[in-house]
Amino acid sequence: MHTLLGLSWGEWASITTIIVFIAGVITLLFKYVVFGSFQADIKDLNKNFKTLNNNLSELRTDIERLDKRADEHDRRLDRHHERIKDLHDKIWGGSYQ
Fold this sequence. Notes:
It contains two helices and two strands; from the N terminus they run ββαα. Strand 1 and strand 2 form a beta hairpin.
C-alpha cells in the first residue's frame, strides 16, 4: 500500500478532512461571534454617513442661496451709494466720496 511519512493515503485524507472541518468551524465562529457584533455598528455607521451626506448637500444648497442673496444685497448697496452720491452732488454741488 502507498504511504507518505508513514501514513496511508486514507489516513492523510482523514487528517485533511478534519483540518478543513476545524478551519470551517473556526471561520464560522469568527464570522458570527466576533464580527457579528460589528455588523450592526457598521450598518449604523453607513446610515450616519448617508445622513451626513444629505446634510452636507442641504448645507451646500443653503450656502449657494445665501451667496446669491449676498450678491443681490451688494448690488443694491452699490445702487444706493450711487443714488446718495448723486443726491449729495445735486444738493451740495461737490463730489461725494
